[in-house]
Design a protein that fits this description.
Layout lengths: L2 E5 L17 E5 L5 H8 L15 E6 L7 E3 L1 H4 L2 E2 L2 E2 L12 E8 L8 E2 L1 H11 L8 E5 L17 E2 L1 H9 L4 E4 L8 H11 L18 E4 L12 E7 L7 E11 L5
Parallel strand pairs: 7-9, 8-10, 9-11, 11-12
Antiparallel strand pairs: 1-14, 2-3, 4-12, 4-14, 5-6, 7-13, 13-14
Amino acid sequence: MPQQLVDLSKPIRYNPKDPFFMRVKIKHKPHRKSRNLIRFFVGLPLKLWPRNFMGWADDTIEKMGVHATTHIDAPWHYSPTVGGKKAKTIDEIPLEWCHGPGVVIDMSHKADFEEITIEDLQQDLSRSGAQIVPGTIVLIRTDRDKLSGTPEFAELGTGMSAEATRWLIEQGIKVMGIDQWGWDLPLKYMAQKARENNDPDYFWRAHLVGAELEYCHMEQLTNLDKLPSHGFEVAVFPLKIEGASAAPARVIAYLPEHAPA
């Protein structure tokens, strides 16, 4: 069956407006920079170079946190243990979790700093007719990917509640994702509310469901507005970084020629 591919990943590039702890630095090396390497280390004299060969281009990622761009978090990110057992790092995630039928739950109407609830999820699933079963990859659309590259990207957004996160896991969902900076409400907002309410249980509480129940979530997805509510597949294979809490991922949706709206 013919398929359309939709890229759900951000480009990896330097952005000075990102928070300092997530800025990426890449050094691009032009073709001419490899000449000495080829001549002296490889041992190929210039007279034997293939015609029209200028040397090879190369690039070095000099700085990039594993959470800096479109990525998938491993259970190890949330806590060293899940339900009393050692949490999986990203290289230990079963590949079977990383490919499956996709469902988009549209939460683009939610206001900044307003949590996404179980009722919100259920209402949208009822509206769209999408069904989630074990192995489904659930994508939460907020349309905050439009803020990517601006200072507001990390400052604004809705966010999943702990209860909604737990409910998805209880439906058999191992991988879920969102198209905003983080899975929870914005970090600074949560810190502010925790201080105002003197509440030690408020901060990062959706992430911390992962200390009880095993799951992964993706952050900083893009183009969820280009997907139907269901009837497509998702592939999200992270880089195999040994012992890491997360990894950048190229996340792709596979749409059949006639996908439902």
